[in-house]
Amino acid sequence: MFRPEGIYPALLTPFDENQKVNDPELRKLLDFGIDRGLDGIFPISSVGEGIHMDFDEKCRCMDIVVDQVNGRVPVIPGVVASAPSECIKLAQFAASIGCDAVLVTPPYFYKPGGAMVERFFESIIEECGLPVILYNIPLFTSPLDYDMVKRLVRYPNVVGMKDSSGSMVDFMHFMDKIAIAGEDISMLTGREETLLSCLLMGANGCMTATAGIFPEIMVGIYKAWQEGDLDTALKLQKMILVVIRTMFAAPFPIGFKLALELRGIEMGPPLMPPSAADTYQINTVKSRLKMLMEPIIEKHCKELETA
Predict the structure, then answer these.
(1) CA–CA separation, 170 vs 190, rounded Å?
(2) pTM above 0.70, yes or no
(3) Which of 57, 140, 178, 192 is surrounded by the fewest CB atoms within 10 Å?
(4) Residues 98-134: pLDDT tens digits?
């Protein structure tokens, strides 16, 4: 059964003036990443504002991605909804157009207890018809606990887990509980700052926003680690830390969209209108990102692209 490995972008979504998915820019973004070595694509992500898309727009986004990718790399869309019935319908649509797996996000807004979260996952796993990646994202949803994951990974179609807690403690305990269950699934970090650390501890890759903005750097870390060149991997890992902090200085996910625009992708207006104070902060972040990113793009990204 399919298992995700390597560098996947949590795909940002370009929108047009009508707040609909911008088809030409999305296709351009996909080619930009795949041409620079990405191992797969994760559309309808948190940073991609999947929460703001209605059912039809999520399906349209999947359609565009699958069509443009055209089998070059695996496609694993997020099935984002607060009710399991809608998640199942999204997953079934993903299966019908040839996606390789789906990533299941815990319910949001209402934060049910652990037993209800577990049943939420079980109902989707049992009905979706595709391999499933569990998603732990405590910043926005009810966190998964170690024993819940231990039980869920016993389903044969659970093939991976993305952990966006940013906690190496949690990451290690999740891996340990999975091993105790006698299972072997792909572990992916959702925090770009921890890619090298997680790889050294047994992870299989990442699903991160920065992988779509700096695919050369993130792929470079992964390849250097594979080759045993830890000095290069660490140098590349440290190189993006200040950029990540700067992106987070604007209201999420606007800072990431500003960074991607500096790579030549037109992201469109924010779906959540910023206040006057936010606009001032956004302009400050944009200027700082330009100053930080230009030397990285001019020197390191071009070197990695031709390596």
Answers:
(1) 12
(2) yes
(3) 140
(4) 999 999 998 877 777 778 999 999 999 999 999 999 9
Residue 109 has what pLDDT? 74
CA 239, CA 101: separation in Å to the nearest integer? 32
Separation between Cα atoms, residue 223 and residue 237, nearest integer Å: 12
C-beta separation of 100 from 74 below 8 A: yes
- Write down the residue that tokens 């565009």 correspond to: 64
Whether the bond into 131 is cis, omega within 30 of 0: no
Q: Which of 160, 174, 170, 228 is nearest to 196 (CA)?
A: 228
CA–CA separation, 98 and 170 (whole Å): 33
Is residue 179 scored above 90 in pLDDT?
A: yes
HSE (side-chain half, CA atoms, 13 Å) at 175: 18
How many CA within 13 A on the CB side of residue 251? 15
**pLDDT band at 306; cut points 50, 70, 90:** low
Contact 92, 129 (CB under 8 A): yes
Distance of alpha carbon 31 from alpha carbon 202, whole angstroms: 29
- State both tokens at 171: 């990451």
User: By the 8 A CB rule, do 255 and 289 touch?
Assistant: yes
**Overall average pLDDT of the 200-229 stretch:** 97
Q: Which residue, among 118, 75, 69, has the nearest Cα to 95 in the 3D structure?
A: 75
